[in-house]
Design the sequence.
């Protein structure tokens, strides 16, 4: 298929997903209403619409898979190029003369996923500036053992000399120190979601460009050391991790206060649909409905087995889940790490992008030889990137919502939890530039700030498209 045909298929799948989510959301609202007659109508609707949805998505999957082999070969080539670019930037031939970026992070209240994303920001600058990134994970005294978990960014240049004399730039909870030369203007253009200009024409044909590049950088940061890989392999064997398998990440304890509580049923609704679609594609296969359940709540595991006896739930039981240790302990870090990497390997995952771990899983899945956009579901936010300068949409269709739901007095943002419950819709005119807001998102309706009307609100996702921003990353002739 040519680029236009592939793009049409991808857009058709996106719109189908949005339509499914619209039905799902409205069904939930109907289910909460009275009288009981409503529930009867809803049950009838779901009984008939569910198989139809799955059949439609299955047809589109078959159509998309016609070009999958060709696409996967190109994606793997681009993955290799990206990793070579990052590796070359971090392994100068002369360490003494090489420019360096010293990344110092002392934010001890930050969770595991948050830490990875903090260092990710430094790495974007380091790669864009061709600087060898230097850090010392032993600074993270709240996370004993983390220094022995990941490979160091460079094999040829581990040199923290002149750290105190380096140029210092504060960002969030990190200090970025650069030596020996000062920072150039590249800092303004090597942000998450901005794609190397020489790779953009190729990657946009087969993938979601901004998510792909972010995933490449993050994957380089969390390359596991040999002994950790061995532990992960043994853990997989112990819990009998096998395919096909869906994965869900249900965070409970430290999630309270950050986002709305979501019942297990919300996750399993998607898992059930995915397995129904899988069986349509594999009618002769005896399918075991496996689910990798990543959670910090031991009671949820018991509840899942009780509510869904037809599913085989697989869980890595960490000491943190059993309340033996706190989330910063060596054992707890292993548990979170293994959950993250096992979710990455699942065939289909349901997460929340309000969670750093949920976003990290999606980012790591970018290095697979396929675009994971259609087999990764977020139950709340749109995917976003730590440290990004903002993602933008351009309106490709007008949108004129009725007056009773039109945004009128939303010039200013409210707190995150309040904005997640907003329902007002923005007026759009073709060509409007919209700054996207990650937590103002309902799949079929996404949200942002319209720079023409100066209002915040929701709008139909299919009426706008991403603005892709190329950045002058060095590619070292690769």
Sequence:
């Amino acid at each position: 298929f040519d680029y236009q045909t592939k793009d049409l298929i991808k857009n058709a799948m996106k719109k189908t997903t949005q339509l499914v989510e619209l039905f799902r959301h409205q069904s939930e609202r109907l289910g909460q209403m009275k009288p009981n007659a409503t529930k009867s109508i809803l049950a009838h609707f779901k009984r008939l619409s569910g198989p139809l949805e799955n059949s439609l998505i299955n047809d589109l999957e078959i159509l998309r898979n016609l070009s999958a082999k060709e696409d996967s070969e190109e994606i793997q080539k681009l993955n290799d190029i990206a990793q070579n670019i990052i590796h070359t930037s971090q392994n100068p031939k002369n360490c003494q003369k090489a420019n360096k970026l010293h990344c110092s992070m002392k934010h001890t209240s930050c969770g595991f996923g948050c830490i990875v994303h903090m260092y990710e920001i430094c790495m974007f600058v380091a790669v864009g500036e061709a600087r060898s990134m230097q850090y010392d994970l032993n600074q993270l005294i709240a996370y004993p053992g983390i220094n022995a978990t990941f490979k160091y960014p460079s094999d040829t240049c581990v040199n923290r000399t002149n750290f105190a004399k380096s140029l210092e730039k504060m960002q969030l909870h990190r200090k970025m120190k650069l030596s020996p030369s000062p920072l150039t203007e590249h800092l303004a253009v090597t942000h998450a979601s901005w794609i190397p200009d020489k790779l953009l024409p190729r990657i946009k044909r087969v993938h979601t460009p901004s998510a792909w590049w972010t995933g490449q950088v993050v994957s380089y940061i969390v390359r596991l050391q040999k002994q950790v890989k061995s532990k992960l392999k043994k853990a997989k064997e112990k819990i009998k991790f096998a395919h096909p398998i869906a994965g869900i990440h249900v965070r409970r304890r430290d999630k309270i206060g950050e986002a709305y509580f979501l019942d297990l049923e919300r996750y399993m609704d998607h898992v059930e649909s995915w397995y129904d679609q899988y069986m349509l594609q594999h009618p002769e296969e005896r399918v075991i409905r496996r689910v990798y359940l990543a959670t910090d709540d031991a009671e949820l595991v018991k509840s899942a087995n009780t509510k869904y006896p037809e599913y085989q739930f697989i869980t890595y039981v960490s000491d943190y889940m059993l309340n033996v240790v706190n989330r910063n302990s060596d054992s707890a870090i292993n548990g979170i790490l293994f959950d993250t990497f096992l979710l990455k390997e699942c065939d289909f995952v349901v997460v929340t992008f309000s969670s750093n771990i949920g976003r990290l899983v999606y980012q790591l899945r970018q290095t697979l030889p396929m675009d994971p956009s259609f087999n990764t579901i977020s139950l709340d936010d749109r995917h976003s990137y730590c440290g990004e300068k903002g993602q933008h949409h351009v309106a490709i269709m007008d949108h004129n919502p009725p007056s009773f739901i039109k945004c009128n007095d939303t010039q200013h943002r409210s707190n995150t939890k309040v904005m997640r419950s907003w329902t007002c819709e923005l007026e759009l005119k073709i060509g409007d530039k919209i700054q996207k807001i990650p937590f103002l998102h309902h799949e079929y309706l996404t949200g942002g700030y319209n720079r023409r009307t100066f209002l915040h609100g929701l709008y139909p996702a299919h009426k706008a498209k991403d603005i892709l921003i190329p950045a002058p990353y060095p590619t070292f002739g690769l």
Remarks:
- The radius of gyration is 23 Å.
- Residues 68 and 370 are 8 Å apart (CA to CA).
- Residues 36-65 form the longest helix (30 residues).
- The chain has twelve helices and 16 strands.
